[in-house]
Amino acid sequence: MPGCCAKFYISDHIYQEGGILYVFLKDPSQEKTFLKLAENCPEVENIMTAEAAAKAYGLPADAIGDYVLFAAAGCAFVNEPA
After folding, report:
1. Contact in structure between 25 and 34 (CB atoms under 8 Å)
2. pLDDT band at 7 (very low <50, low <70, confident <90, very high)
3. DSSP label at 62?
4. Dist CA 6 CA 12 (whole Å)
5. Which secondary structure element, helix H or strand E, spans residue 71, and what is its range?
């Protein structure tokens, strides 16, 4: 998935690298396009709204963006150089 999501989210969030990715949509009108991309990515195991993830995992809803993506087994989210 190298570079494919950069147009959808704000990069360099402090918790960006690892098995969880907090997605801050740059343009909310692209939400359906983003979700379709994420849902069809085998490296993404689960997608939750920020509200659902905050409730389920005790995360700060105001600091985790719009969506929380969970990496599939053996995968991680990393910040690649542009």
Report:
1. yes
2. low
3. G
4. 10
5. strand 67-71
CB 76 within 8 A of CB 19: yes
What is the side-by-side order of every strand in the sheet holding 44-49?
20-23, 67-71, 44-49
CA dist 28 and 75 (Å) reads 27
Q: What angle do CA 29, 4, 70 make, to 5 degrees?
A: 85
Nearest-angstrom CA–CA distance, 23 and 65: 5
Token pair of 34, please?
């983003």
- The whole-model pTM stands at 0.75
Q: Are 68 and 47 contacting, i.e. CB atoms less than 8 angstroms apart?
A: yes
CB 60 within 8 A of CB 13: no
β-partners of residue 16 are none
Q: Per-residue pLDDT tens for 24-70? A: 999 999 999 999 999 999 999 999 999 999 999 999 999 999 999 99
